[in-house]
Amino acid sequence: MAKTRVGVIGLGSMGYGMAVSALGAGLEVVGYDLAAERRQALAEKGGAVAESLPALAAGADVVVSVVVNAAQTEAVLFGPEGVAGAMPEGAVFVSCATVAPQIAGQMAERLEAMGRHYLDAPMSGGTLGANSGALTFMAAGSPAAFERADPALQAMGKKVYQLGDTAGRGSAMKLINQLLVGVHIAAAGEAMAMALKLGLEAEEVFEVISNSAGASWAFCDRVPHMLSGDYSPKSAVAIFTKDLGIVLDAARSEGFPVPLAANALQSYLMAEAAGMSRDDDSSVVRVYAQMAGLDLPGG
Fold this sequence. Notes:
The chain is of the alpha/beta class. The chain has helices at 15-24, 36-44, 53-57, 70-78, 101-112, 126-131, 143-156, 169-197, 202-210, 217-228, 237-254, 259-276, 284-292, and strands at 5-9, 28-32, 48-49, 62-65, 92-95, 117-120, 123-124, 135-139, 157-162.
């Protein structure tokens, strides 16, 4: 029985781990990235490397797109060098970027009219989940799209939620996730900065709150970055200026108030304005520290 052939577009912190997880599950993997060092890293793990997007798509059963936003997704799919026309008929395009639900629906309709499947499948789990094949996929698409994509999704994820046959429902679920995570990270930064202002020891605050009702996944995951002073990007500030911006756009279109998300977005925008766009999203604590004249741990 032939192996499922998976093409992975974007070999950054998420896509590389996803490609390696697929290799580890015994799938045939070919990757593409603009950066030569990322292509080389996959080749050293035993994956094939494509020199162009059409070359990646040719013969692929599943094309997994791990790019940043809707514009990049549309470019790799329908651009002059996009994969849509090069994918075999019946193959599936798995879109993992966080995009507005209506955009996912539009791209799905356009691709399916060409005889290919589209799976709206943003994910959560970060680099750790990508590297260990333990992502959570929030997916929506036709039964045929799920069936074709299943070997890749099972290799890359520990949970695959099937949210219906209408593309856009996966993206809608991801927006809810990003609303919560974005607010929680901003709240963690605010709380840690206030703790320092009150004269508390940062490590002690982390220990106590991690074992108290005020803890959240975001607090427990991001505060160690703040304690070490390591703001190398696990997930960059710019991700949340983008994703919370999409949340606010969706809320406005529905006439629905999201004041906590709006306030959190301002924290990330302040961090971005202060030159931290590419730094870790835990950098929101640095904004508070700068305003209050606080010395952060590890600084």
